[in-house]
Write a structure and sequence with these properties.
By secondary structure, this protein is mainly β. It has three helices and 20 strands. The chain is about 5% helix and about 35% strand. The strands form five sheets. Strands 3-18-15-20-14-13 form a six-stranded antiparallel β-sheet.
């Protein structure tokens, strides 16, 4: 299979330290550890490729089906049309055994009830309007289009629309996560959920924290697009990987390039900028544009490439449950997409 230049593998372009630990590292060129520094004017030391590791990988058969609300390609334009005339709404778009994601629109003057989630982070991408984000322990900030937001476990937070236009954002949770309501802001018992009865308790375990790899927010257009900066993982945590992959448009790879598949998880992407071409097993080839959501169901061969035109900057945000998730490539691919 032809090795494709400038095509990033979805979900593997995190921070440099993390990349070194990825399964793909064995296929990447590497300088031998014992190589001495080159003398001034001397030719560069030859780069060698680590041996490829071959294995018999279980490929889901039949492949995972798309069951509602899941679909290969959610077009934002179609979602907005379906909610025309509604000030506030929620549209489920992803449901799998690991993650769930919904579009949220909150009308002018709206504010969410304060909630926290017991054991997992919440990730968001703001797409239109302005929303004031208040997270325990952080100065409130106003997020607009392109902001990526990270709320650690057990930190209460609220979202409040600022200005006259509705705020629209994608919100991602671990599958099955249900909210806890602090008694200080919700003194009366909330409405029960199917399978759950709300009970007043003492919450233990302490607050979640931010660290060197996880920050409260990223202003994508200001921090990445304007300075033409490098991208990478915004959230890299237990059961949650939200990873920005950015590059210039390239020629579409041939259909013989299958990409890769994942043994144990479904992956989806938010298109942040430009266009991304997709080839997914069992799905006709298509191009997604900014604001769209694309899903490759568990076990399906899939390939994402920068959709162009040539030279245009394109960005997809890969979202899956494993920062070091395994990527299985065809035997003749050389370990690359």
């Amino acid at each position: 299979m032809r090795v494709l230049k400038t095509l990033f593998t979805a979900g593997t372009m995190g921070a440099a330290a993390m990349i070194a630990q990825q399964a793909l590292a064995q296929a990447a060129p590497a300088v031998p550890p014992a190589a001495a520094p080159a003398q001034a004017g001397a030719p560069a030391a030859p780069r060698v490729q680590a041996p490829l590791l071959y294995g018999w990988s279980p490929k889901k058969t039949p492949v995972e089906a798309y069951t509602a609300p899941n679909k290969p390609h959610w077009k934002l334009s179609e979602i907005l049309a379906s909610h025309k005339g509604q000030a506030s709404w929620i549209q489920p778009v992803v449901r799998n055994k690991d993650l769930m994601a919904d579009w949220h629109q909150l009308g002018a003057g709206g504010k969410t009830v304060e909630v926290l989630y017991p054991d997992n982070r919440v990730g968001m991408i703001v797409w239109s309007g302005q929303v004031r984000v208040s997270i325990k322990g952080q100065e409130p900030f106003v997020a607009s289009k392109g902001f990526e937001i990270n709320v650690p476990l057990r930190l209460p937070f609220t979202m409040e629309t600022v200005g006259d236009a509705p705020a629209l954002w994608l919100e991602v949770h671990q599958a099955g996560d249900v909210p806890i309501y602090p008694v200080t802001s919700t003194p009366t018992k909330p409405k029960d959920l199917p399978g759950y009865t709300y009970t007043k308790v003492v919450i233990s375990g302490g607050d979640g924290v931010y660290d060197g790899a996880n920050k409260p927010y990223l202003d994508f257009y200001k921090d990445v697009v304007e300075p033409n900066a490098r991208t990478g993982a915004f959230i890299a945590s237990d059961h949650f990987f939200l990873n920005n992959i950015r590059g210039k448009g390239t020629a579409t790879p041939p259909p013989t390039n299958l990409g890769h598949f994942h043994v144990d998880f479904t992956e989806f992407w938010f298109i942040m900028e430009g266009n991304i071409d997709y080839q997914i097993e069992g799905v006709p080839f298509f191009t997604a544009e900014a604001g769209d959501i694309v899903t490759a169901a568990q076990g399906r061969w899939h390939r994402a490439s920068f959709g162009g035109p040539i030279g245009q900057m394109d960005t997809r945000v890969a979202i899956n449950p494993f920062p070091r998730g395994l990527h299985d490539f065809p035997e003749d691919s050389g370990g690359r997409q």
